[in-house]
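Quick one, T. Sequence first:
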Amino acid sequence: MARVTVEDCVDKITSRFDLVLLAAHRSREMAEGSEILVDRDNDKNPIVALREIAEEKLVPEELEESKVFSLQTQVDVDEADEDYIPLVQDNSKPSISASDDEAEEVEVVEERMSEEDLLKAMQDNMIDKKNNRRSF
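Structure tokens:
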């Protein structure tokens, strides 16, 4: 690594550890085909990433946000899944056909999973998590 480039970057990003992480992330982005914002001058991706940071072609906050987003394995979604079916159904509401005078109490039935079904669901969940991880 060129010392002049690192010394120029420390002015923009004060922590050398953050500088290394952000430059490495930017270097990976370039390897994946991202647009290079400075002349390459026959330099490798880490040096080009440091030069981009030194010349303030990148906003450090945006680069850090991009790094965090790329490392996320789970994304929080506020919307409910369409195929969501609750395990315990709410049968406590009286039926519509019953009149007010003849309102019957409905017994709530709990369904329990067998141990084999629970283990299979856990294994399927682990397989899904392994398939969704990104490799670098």
